[in-house]
């Protein structure tokens, strides 16, 4: 199979996934469950880029909104564009992780982790919090890895 065709299929898969994820999180209260039964939520946050067209006719609209309205991006979706970059907010208990995801390769950037409140935490609490974060990222990594494997095996 031609390498450029595989790359194009991966981009389309990524765009379809991020577009579906935005639709799902915008219309439902979505909770994901980890292996240890703890849950986290996910939502699109403040910055989204949508893209449509082929070849030289590719159009991209990037929208940033501190209130999270993203009206112009939603208009782009109605005209056939798909999400190609998104800022995602993961929330578990009191903790939040914010990051950018690119549909082309599911590359992550701009990761912001929860603040550590050192003055109010005991050593035991810090260890438990560290363990919880590791299990969250292990689960997220497994999810992205299995998604990546299934897209490469279908190619």
Describe the structure.
- It is a single chain.
- This protein is an alpha+beta fold and 155 residues long.
- The chain has one domain.
- The chain is 42% helix and 30% strand.
- The chain has 3 helices and 6 strands.
- Strands 1, 2, 3, 4, 5 and 6 form a 6-stranded antiparallel beta sheet that branches.
- A hairpin with a 6-residue loop joins strand 2 and strand 3 (59-64).
Radius of gyration over all CA atoms, rounded: 18 Å
Can you tell me the residue ranges where pLDDT is under 50 for at least 5 consecutive residues? none
In total, the number of strands is 6
The total of helices stands at: 3
What is the helix/strand order? HEEEHEEEH
Shape: globular
Mean residue pLDDT: 78
Kindly report how far apart the N and C termini lie: 8 Å
- By oligomeric state, this entry counts as single chain
Give the DSSP E fraction (strand runs of 2 or more residues): 25-35%
Query: Structural class of the secondary elements?
Result: alpha+beta
Largest sheet, strands/sense/barrel: 6 strands, antiparallel
Number of domains: 1
Fraction in helix: 40-55%
């Amino acid at each position: 199979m031609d390498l450029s065709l595989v790359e194009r299929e991966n981009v389309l898969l990524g765009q379809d996934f991020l577009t579906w994820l935005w639709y799902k999180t915008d219309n439902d209260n979505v909770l994901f469950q980890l292996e240890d039964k703890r849950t986290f939520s996910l939502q699109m946050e403040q910055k989204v880029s949508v893209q449509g067209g082929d070849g030289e006719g590719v159009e991209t609209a990037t929208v940033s909104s501190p209130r999270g309205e993203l009206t112009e991006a939603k208009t782009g979706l109605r005209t056939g564009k798909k999400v190609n970059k998104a800022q995602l907010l993961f929330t578990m208990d009191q903790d939040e992780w914010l990051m950018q995801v690119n549909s082309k390769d599911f590359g992550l950037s701009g990761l912001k982790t929860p603040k550590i409140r050192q003055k109010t935490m005991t050593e035991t609490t810090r260890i438990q919090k560290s363990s919880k974060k590791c299990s969250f990222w292990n689960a997220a990594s497994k999810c992205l890895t299995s998604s990546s494997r299934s897209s490469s095996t279908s190619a």
